[in-house]
Amino acid sequence: MSVRSIDLKNGAITLLVIACIFAAGALVGKYYFSKTDIKVIDRIVYTTVYKESAPTQYTPENFDKLLLWANSPINFKDRTEKNYLFVTAFDLNKENTARYEIGTKGNWKVYGVIAGLAAIAGGIAVYELKR
């Protein structure tokens, strides 16, 4: 074995170790330290659906029904499908649904800084081990 082949082998191993540590740092930065921002791209509000029409005659029973509808709390439920968020607001008599198209964007500066620091740490570790 010549001296030149040993140096080439050590250099390749060093670069491989630094690349692996860089990739590990990028993954740690992306999945552990980053926060993704959700932005609303489009919003569609559907028409209000009434479960029962309002009574036209004012009797004590109809008044109680109207009072119950007026005092019923508004509840919300949501669900997601692919990149859409559906939010439904409803009470005892009516409901309305809005569809939001959402997109996420990550902070690539955070990923890059953490990956760069990991590559530097890997380079220092390899240098110290080979010393």
Description:
With 131 residues, the protein is an alpha+beta fold. The protein folds into 2 domains: 1-36 and 106-131; 42-105, no CATH class. It is built from 3 helices and 5 strands; from the N terminus they run αββαβββα. The protein has helices at residues 3-33, 60-71, 108-130, and strands at 37-45, 49-50, 75-81, 84-90, 94-105. Strands 1, 2, 3, 4 and 5 form a 5-stranded antiparallel sheet that branches. A hairpin with a 3-residue loop joins strand 4 (84-90) and strand 5 (94-105). It is rod-shaped and about 95 Å long. The two termini are 21 Å apart. The model has no long low-confidence stretch (mean pLDDT 80).
Distance between the termini: 21 Å
Return Rg in Å: 30 Å
- The helix/strand order is HEEHEEEH
Main beta-sheet strand count, sense and barrel state: 5 strands, antiparallel
Residue runs with pLDDT of under 50 for 5 or more positions: none
- Shape annotation: rod-shaped
How many beta-strand segments? 5
Overall SS class: alpha+beta
Average pLDDT works out at: 80
Number of helices: 3
Strand proportion, as a percent range, falls in 25-35%
| Number of individual domains | 2
Q: What share of the residues lie within helices?
A: 40-55%
